Amino acid sequence: MVCTSKHMKIKAVLFDFDGTLVNSVEQVYLGSRNVLIESGVQVPTFPEFCEEYEAPYATYFKKRGVTASNSDILRWYFDVARADEQPFFDDVCDVLQQLREQGILLGIISAHYKGKIQKRLKESNLAHHMQVVVGRAHTKVRPIQQFCHKSNISFEDACYVGDFASDVRDARKAGVVSIGITRGNETRDMLLRNGADYCIDDLYGLMSLFK
User: Fold this and answer.
1) Which CATH code fits 3-23+87-209?
2) d(CA 120, CA 9)
3) pTM assigned to the model
């Protein structure tokens, strides 16, 4: 079954993990902020961070002027960041179930570790919804395209949902529908400016696009 609307026809939805499915992006920001503070480097605002940050983290910190060793960066980051302890957003279970009932293929493509993502999905009884989980994706263009090819889905019939500028840019580069998600943060203008075709506040907003 294909989900259609006046906006688009979708057969597959691929998601970012941190900040999109899991309420962890504030922790990612706090950890990164601590690295910059310890390095004596100017700290960006949260919206600026969401626009500038992209994996791998070492490249981001180098661009910001951090010269510390990798071990120091990790220590400073994990001194304050507790991203792995944060819960899934309340809408995740319901929306994933609705999408699967409509026959839409689902997957996760993230810079997070694949094993940790799979563990979290299993613990929350969400693993059965996902056709693919790709971790450590420093760029998401190729994994998005590979999923579409393997699933025999044209790029225009798939979308990618993410909360960072790099997410919506990679989706556009991959040729799929690019959907930015704010999760209540003041990032809508930034996401649209960086190429999001649509911008939603939560996953229920995603469902409204498909009606």
Assistant:
1) 3.40.50.1000
2) 30
3) 0.94
